[in-house]
Amino acid sequence: MSKSLRMAELKKRLEILEREIRSIPGGGDIWLDQQPGSAKHMYFDGGAGKMYVKPRGINEYEIALSTNPLVDEMGSFMIEQCGKQPDKYNHPGRREPCWWVTDFEIVRRAVYRYAHKSYQLPDEVSLAPVQNGEKALMAWVEENEQRAAALPLDLLQKRAEQAPAIARKVDVLSATYIRNPEVANYAKRRANGICDLCGTAAPFSKPTGEPYLESHHVKWISNGGEDSINNVVALCPNCHRKMHVLNRDEDIEKLEQQILQYGR
Ligand SMILES: [Zn+2]
Ligand SMILES: [Zn+2]
């Protein structure tokens, strides 16, 4: 492969990585750039210092960490991934270690790790498939939503307009509870089309004509609540969402009263 072909190929691969990383929801600014006047001095920048990725020989890349904080964050990771101490230091007397690697997968992992650190993802949420990480992922998403809410409108608008239009896909493995459909259906029929919380009629009916209500566990199953008709109510979508967002004591009490009422 000629030198320029190699360069084009590497650039394409790095651009794909950049796109993947930039499409992380709520992510900061990480971008791929190149040193002016030197096409092969390509680097990622995300505020934590540049991480250089340069082509060296046939299928050989040089990964260099440019700042002390970045070395602190990634130095041991790189040693572990590459299975060796740095091949050299770019600037004698300064800490700019670089590794020559032949495996693009290591480049890829290094770039993801760099992004992972720059995005301050919780450790349980790697950018690779997440094992049992739904909770950590949701917490991270919520944190990002709060960060978005704190941005001034003009900056938010700019970022929203420039956001990559492709949502990032992550595999999440998580445990869930199987709720008893008979308990849920009984709670809905017992409510007879009226929301157990606000007392108004279901907002619409299903194609079958059945009023649309959602079953809800007053004491959440995840907190040890029972999957029984003494803990399940039927709510309109608004009230259901409200319970999951606010879960106010007075609403819980109202629902418990309603269940008692049915028991009479
Ligand atoms: Zn309601
Ligand atoms: Zn619910």
Description of the molecule:
The chain is of the alpha+beta class. The chain has 2 domains: 3-123; 181-263, DNA Binding (I), subunit A, CATH 1.10.30.50. Helices cover 42% and strands 14% of the residues. The strands form 3 sheets. A 6-stranded antiparallel sheet has the order 1-2-3-4-6-5. It has a two-stranded parallel ribbon with strand order 7-8. Helix 2 runs antiparallel to helix 3 (104-118). The N and C termini lie far apart (82 Å). Residues 123-131 have low confidence and may be disordered. The structure holds zinc ion (2 copies). One zinc ion (ZN) binds next to strand 9 and helix 7. Residues 216-217, 240, 244 line the site of one zinc ion (ZN).
What layout of secondary structure does this protein have?
Blueprint: H1 3-22, E1 31-34, E2 42-45, E3 51-55, E4 61-65, H2 68-82, E5 88-89, E6 97-101, H3 104-118, E7 130-131, H4 134-149, H5 153-162, E8 172-173, H6 181-191, E9 214-217, E10 232-235, H7 237-245, H8 249-263
Parallel strand pairs: 7-8
Antiparallel strand pairs: 1-2, 2-3, 3-4, 4-6, 5-6, 9-10
Helix pairs in contact: 2-3
This protein binds zinc ion (ZN) (2 copies).
